[in-house]
Design goal:
about 120 residues; mainly alpha; 3 helices; about 0% strand; rod-shaped
Length: about 120
């Protein structure tokens, strides 16, 4: 009887560990999707900044700088969430993480040229 109860508790613990790993992966996946959408928005805005008819380039440059800062913050958050996932995986005995690298590729920081539309540096 006691062995059966122990096995039930052990089974529940395994289920909870699996759920926790799943939630950690979902949080990381969500931030990576958010980063990609934000990246696309930034690149679109960068193209607009290069249009010769645009008059307020300084405002756009400031806005771009803010957006790049937010992108960097999101990337840092993704690194933290990935680290949390790795710790949880190791806590359950998973020591190899190539599948994490494949499933959740980490974004690189987005750097845009700081020159003018003609390519000159400011």
């Amino acid at each position: 009887m006691k062995k059966h109860a122990f096995e039930q508790v052990e089974s529940e613990i395994r289920k909870e560990k699996a759920k926790a790993l799943g939630r950690a992966g979902e949080r990381l996946e969500q931030i990576l999707l958010e980063i990609e959408a934000f990246r696309q928005e930034i690149l679109c805005q960068a193209e607009k900044r290069l249009e010769p008819s645009l008059g307020d380039r300084d405002r756009l440059a400031r806005d771009m700088k803010e957006r790049l800062g937010e992108h960097a913050r999101l990337c840092d958050q993704a690194k933290h969430l990935r680290h949390t996932l790795i710790i949880q995986r190791e806590a359950v005995g998973l020591w190899r993480h190539e599948d994490v690298d494949r499933q959740y590729p980490m974004p690189r920081l987005l750097l845009l040229p700081t020159g003018t539309p003609s390519g000159e540096a400011r």
